[in-house]
Amino acid sequence: MAKQPAAVVGIGQTHHRAKRQDVSMAGLCREAIDRALLDANLTLDDIDAIVVGKAPDLFEGVMMPELFLAESLGAAGKPLLRVHTAGSVGGSTAIVAASLVQSGVHKRVLTVAYEKQSESNAMWALSVPLPFNMPVHAGAGGYFAPHVRSYIRRSGAPTHVGAIVAAKDRNNALKNPYAHLHNEGTTVESVLASTMLWDPIRYDETCPSSDGACALVIVDEDTAKASPNPAWIHGTVMRSESTSAAERDQVNPQASRDAAAYLWKQAGITDPFAEIDAAEIYVPFSWFEPMWLESLGFAGEGEGWQLTESGETAMTGRLPVNCSGGVLSSNPIGASGMLRFGEAALQVRGAAGEHQVDGARRALGHAYGGGSQFFAMWVVGSEKPSS
Amino acid sequence: MTRTLSAPVTVAFDYTRSTGPVLGRFLTGLRDKVVVGGRTSAGEVVVPPLEYDPVTHEQTADFVEVADVGTVTSWTWVPEPVAGQPFGRPFAFALVTLDGATRPLFHAVDVASPDDISTGMRVRVRWAAERVGHINDIAAFEPLDRPGVEEVAQQPSRNPSTTEPVAGVVTPVSLDYIYAASPEESTFYRGLDEGRILGQRCPSCHKVYVPPRSACPTDGTPTEGEIELSGAGTITTFCIVNVPFLGQKIAPPYVSAYVLLDGADIALLHLILGVPADEVRMGMRVKAVWKPREEWAYSLENIDHFAPTDEPDADYDTYKRHL
Amino acid sequence: MRDVAVVGFAQQQLPDFDGSPTCVEMLVPILAECYEQTGWTRRDVGFWCSGSSDYLAGRSFSFVQAVDAIGVTPPVNESHVEMDLAWAMYEAWIKIQTGEVDTALVYAFGKSSAGVLRRTLALQLDPYTMTPLWPDTVSLAGLQARAGIDAGVWDERAMAEVAQRSLTDAEQNEHSIRKGGSSVEELLARPMYADPLRKHDCAPVTDGVAALVLAAGDRAREVRDRPAWITGLSHFVDPSSLSNRDLTRSPSAADAAAAVDLTGVEVAELHAPFSHQELILRRELGLADDVRINPSGGALTSNPMFSGGGIRVGETARRIWSGEISKGVGHATSGAALQQNLLCVLDSSTGKDGL
Fold it and tell me: How confident is the model over A199-210, as a mean pLDDT?
């Protein structure tokens, strides 16, 4: 049985900032929702169901916040779902929302993902010491830095490749009015000169802590006819593996490779490097660009850094990656995945503004979470899929 | 001996919430001893104001000052208060529809017994002596037919003299839990208390897990048996932590490393000392350095750190599948 | 819509589980029980979805370790909701409806006893104007119960009748952690706890895990002679604010009922953690007098957080598999005072037979 066609016709996001002290949590979500609905030319009353995504509840100190937010989000009197799959949640949430349409159950679904990190402190929320355990962790950076070191060892990549990614994404962000960081004049040299935090990860190679939200309106084929530029969903995938299985490949996890293979197959893509026009890849630490390029099949094993170093992932390259500035420039954790999915949709709708890749027809949205163990991805296209 | 080890843990943070304009208006009112409601498109006066209208979905903009006197529309007795509630002794929670409002406000009513409260009873706000723009600026409601009680100052004072609108509120959340380790983890921590590092083997894939697991993540099978490891191992990969963070117990910089103990199939995350951080290498051979015996507990912290041995580095091929 | 049935169900409930809040230890045997019921291995499962809460466990990402119980090499198609098992089932049902997979196993877990449950749940309320007062779950239920008593919608006797029937039925349920009926008079003679609630009006704090197995079409028929076909599945949510709700009603439950066909339902398993909430639900669902309510003893006798709703679906399915009934409904609730509600109608027939 084939899935019902589904398309993104509305995309909204907040101006992401370290502290959005001008809004409540509901206000933050509504800023993104109202923009998405305006984009879709729909109102909350047109919406059949709402799917909320967010990372750990400890970040905001509210248990299942979608419950208290229900009325403000316009969900009262509608079906409401809450997804939480760690860092991949923004992507997973979009996929769940899409499946409500692809199943034929609903016609117009609104999905919103957010994080208001300024309500607390993510490093604290992720590192609450447990009895008996050894407190050597230091938040997400402390978790991922050893695996970055492993990648460098394995691939033989020159040590400045991470800085190339950071400089590229920060400069891309200058073209994105919603991005949190607008750091003018970031260069490879300035990144390399920044403080080493979790060696081998430097300060400028890490994502910021942001307040922000992203919302998407996903609709069925009939509703999409009213849109001048729907982004059709060509494939979606979620794959999970364990944090700590013996001999697990933590640099290039099998769940990531499996997910990519399944995704390309669904989308009818045999050569992703040639066929994908823009990619929004979840890169919270610079080195994850080359790591995921390999895992996703854009480059051979150990060769991802060469694409980055040669400039192929810049906006002028053959595979522009994170034209929006990516997670390195805005990181409202729960929303970060949905921003990747939404930015991919903006590209194929020709609606990405200054960071638009000319003529983008097919784009990848990607998110991952946990200890590189939860993966969510989609491919969107400007044309309706043929099958 | 209990089946598992357990210990208390407190999860606490003082959340700093920005309120947005609607709730900010309500909290500003409380600071100034005024209860502010919001009028909905259907004409209801709701306290606190709804942030967004239930029908039009527009942000509430029509504010109404209501009385600090009202009527109990429902109530419940609280015989065993929990931490953080307005009173540490039995009291009532109630829904109170203030004069001028059409919908009730939830708060506490200070009465001595359930016989002293009833639906329909008239009550008034007892204001906190110090008000900061917080729901606790209302100390409680009290019966209208009772002489008013002047509340003594007990609120945290936060810039009480200001006339600026309230835009933020601090809401402490502190939760006490009893954290239990799984039986397999308990075996591991009990071993550590005896100076032993104990692993178990997965009966399906035969991999050795340290600590042992309630389910081998590859097969979903609980690990079994008892395998004692020497405490010698190889650093597979690591990072140097230079960043301080809230709740951190070790002063940076320090090396956080994955140590693959000889005989184990999974690396353990631990601290490396006894060598300058910039001399730590992948493949470096290390051994466990235990704390003095009198400091031992049921904890991985009994191993103070791992320190280099004088063995040559392990060959990359011996640990590369653990990266 | 594809024909999808509940074909497997396993549960474990305890008053005070002494193991890790990840509950992996409890999940392993109930997943094994699902494999035994279906004759499958984990590789026959097309999609997995779990339900749990970080705040129940007292740590971020508390669900992450739970996938170990599956055994996830090779990796699995998997998701997680910060919701009850019933909504994890809903996500899986949707996934099957897209045609991507034919089978799913959903599970949920929660160690309610790790903290002070009625206090922890105060974190579900408006964090600006409600949570700072720490309104505990029992107090909110008490306000709701009083509202109905004052309005003459129900009385203490009706509440005691619910408790008496539940405690009596629980005697037949090995999983119930509170059981033993006496008489309505005796229950009414017991002291008030949180006036107007007596202790038997409130669900006991319960730890536990549960799992449900879903399969489409012939995959379901391979497993069971009488699969419990899902002929209706619907859920809605109400506002959270107590200032903006009629506590004697549950519009979301009524909306869910309007979206499914409850005609001919013989059994209704209602997720009512407080006795008066069953009375609200019966009214909103418009259940006839001869519908058997909560033959399992219901949530009033055992209410493991995050699986308590899904267990209602499983208990209903069990009675269809055995031939005891032909049609039933399982209900799940979430949030304070029946804020969010789900109905799953199960039938021994797909409704398309003979077409």
Answer: 95
Q: Could you tell me which CATH class the domain C118-203+229-347 is placed in?
A: alpha beta
B201 and B242 inside one domain: no
Q: Which of C75, C98, C340 sits opposite A241 (nearest CB)?
A: C75
- Extents of the domains making up chain C: 4-116+205-223, 118-203+229-347
Who contacts C292 (Cβ-Cβ below 8 Å, separation ≥6)?
Answer: C266, C267, C268
The pLDDT of residue C199: 97
pLDDT of residue A138: 64
Mark yes or no for CB contact A23/B18 under 8 Å: yes
* Contact by Cβ (8 Å): B26, B34: no
> Mind telling me how many Å the CA of A127 is from chain B's nearest CA?
7
Interface of A with B in 225-254 (CB under 8 A): 241-251
Residues B40 and B111 in one domain: yes
Q: Which candidate, C244, C215, C243, places its Cα nearest to that of C228? A: C215
Do B22 and B68 reside in the same domain of the chain?
yes
Question: Which chains contact C through at least 3 pairs of Cβ atoms less than 8 Å apart?
Answer: A, B
Q: Report ipTM (2 d.p.).
A: 0.97
Distance of CA A165 to the CA centre of its chain: 16
| Residues spanned by the domain of B213 | 183-228
* Radius of gyration of chain C from its Cα atoms, rounded to whole angstroms: 19
**Inter-chain touch A129–B52, beta carbons under 8 Å:** no
Tell me what pLDDT residue B250 has.
Answer: 74
**Residues of C with Cβ-Cβ distance to A241 under 8 angstroms:** 67, 72-73, 75-76
Residue pairs between chains B and C whose CB atoms are closer than 8 Å: 195
Q: Per-residue b/e over B29-60, b at no fewer than 16 CB within 10 Å?
A: bbbeeebbbbbbeeebbbbbbbbbbbeebebb
Residue B194 lies in a domain: yes
Question: B15 in a domain, yes or no?
Answer: yes
A124 interfaces chain B, CB cutoff of 8 Å: yes
Contact B323 A150 (CB under 8 A): yes
Q: For chain B, how many structural domains are there in total?
A: 3
Query: How high is the mean pLDDT of chain B?
Result: 93
Is the previous residue joined to A5 through a cis bond, with omega within 30 degrees of 0?
no
Burial (CB count within 10 angstroms: exposed 0-12, middle 13-18, buried 19+), residue C31: buried
Question: Which of A82, A84, A242 shows the shortest C-beta gap to C72?
Answer: A242
Helix, strand, or coil (residue C163): helix
Tell me: do B16 and B136 sit in the same domain. yes
Verify whether the Cβ–Cβ distance C134 to B85 is below 8 Å.
yes
B56 with B94, same domain: the answer is yes
pTM for the model: 0.97
Residue B10 lies in a domain: yes
Tell me, yes or no, if A44 comes closer than 8 A to chain B by beta carbon: yes
The pLDDT confidence band at residue B156, using thresholds 50, 70 and 90, is very low
Q: Residues C282-304: pLDDT tens digits?
A: 999 999 999 999 999 999 999 99
**Pairwise CB contact (< 8 Å): A241 & C83:** no
Compute the mean pLDDT over every residue in chain C, rounded to the nearest whole number: 96
Query: So what's the pLDDT on residue B1?
Result: 85
**Which of A71, A146, A149 is nearest residue B52 as measured by Cβ atoms?**
A71
**In terms of CA atoms, which chain C residue is nearest residue B92?**
C139
Between A121, A149, A241, which is nearest B237 by CB? A149
* Residues in chain A within 8 Å Cβ distance of B249: 129, 135
Whether B151 and B217 share a structural domain: no
The owner of tokens 């060769």 is A303
CB of A301 less than 8 A from some CB of B = no
Comparing alpha-carbon positions, the chain A residue that sits nearest to C68 is A242
B156 and B51 housed in the same domain: yes
- CATH for C4-116+205-223 is 3.40.47.10
Q: Is residue B1 part of a domain?
A: no
φ/ψ of residue B161, rounded to 5 = -85, -10
Q: A289, A310 in Cβ contact below 8 A? A: no
The CATH code of domain A6-122+209-224 reads 3.40.47.10
